[in-house]
Amino acid sequence: MHRRPSGRGNLPLLVVSIAAGLLLVLVVVDYAFPTSHPQAFGTPLVSQPSLPSNLTTSRAQVLVPSGTNLNIDSGAFNDVVFGLAMGASVSGTFMSNAPVTAYLLTPAAFESLETDQSAPGSLWSVGPVDSGGIELTVPAGTWYVAFTSANPQGSTMVEFTTSLVAVYPPPGGAPLS
């Protein structure tokens, strides 16, 4: 007959088992109910980008969150690149501390902007303006939103005042062209 030792020798194993069980319960509860305690286990709160009120998140993709800032040196440009798996309605607004020209460019047109400082093939442009917005239907593919500045006083700051979002057609809906 084999006898199991009893007494204090099993106490450390018992304490470790209870602690592991409690930790497992906390992880499961945190996973199942994440909004009940958002700071659990030191996880920082992440602010969610704001979407226009007429959009549903099931059909919208945030391309650039509101509050994103781009710094543009005098005579230069700055850009944000994004991809669309299918045609979508793209919209968003921006403002700057000096006039800028904004473009929506294909990769080929962006290459021209990089080499010649011109954007002859842009799908959309506006400027020079201190604030503006984009709202148009964009085909699938890779796209660049680029801002140029001719500010002689130095750098220009552009801020996305609302998120740049892509709104896709509902499932089974007609594709956007």
Secondary structure elements and pairings:
Elements: H1 11-32, E1 60-64, E2 69-72, E3 77-84, E4 88-105, H2 107-116, E5 124-138, E6 141-149, E7 156-167
Antiparallel strand pairs: 1-7, 2-7, 3-6, 4-5, 4-6, 4-7
Give structural notes:
With 177 residues, the protein is of the alpha+beta class. It folds into two domains: 8-42; 60-167, Jelly Rolls, CATH 2.60.120. 18% of the residues lie in helices and 40% in strands. It contains two helices and seven strands. It starts with 10 loop residues before the first helix and ends in a 10-residue tail after the last strand. 20% of the residues are buried.
Tag the structure with descriptive keywords.
Jelly Rolls, seven-stranded antiparallel beta sheet, alpha+beta, 7 strands, 177 residues, 40% strand, 2 helices, 2 domains
- Strand elements, count: 7
Q: How far do the termini sit from each other?
A: 80 Å
The shape is: globular
CATH topology of the largest domain: Jelly Rolls
The CATH superfamily label of the largest domain reads GOLD domain
Provide a brief overview of the structure.
By secondary structure, the protein is of the alpha+beta class. It has two helices and seven strands; from the N terminus they run H-E-E-E-E-H-E-E-E.
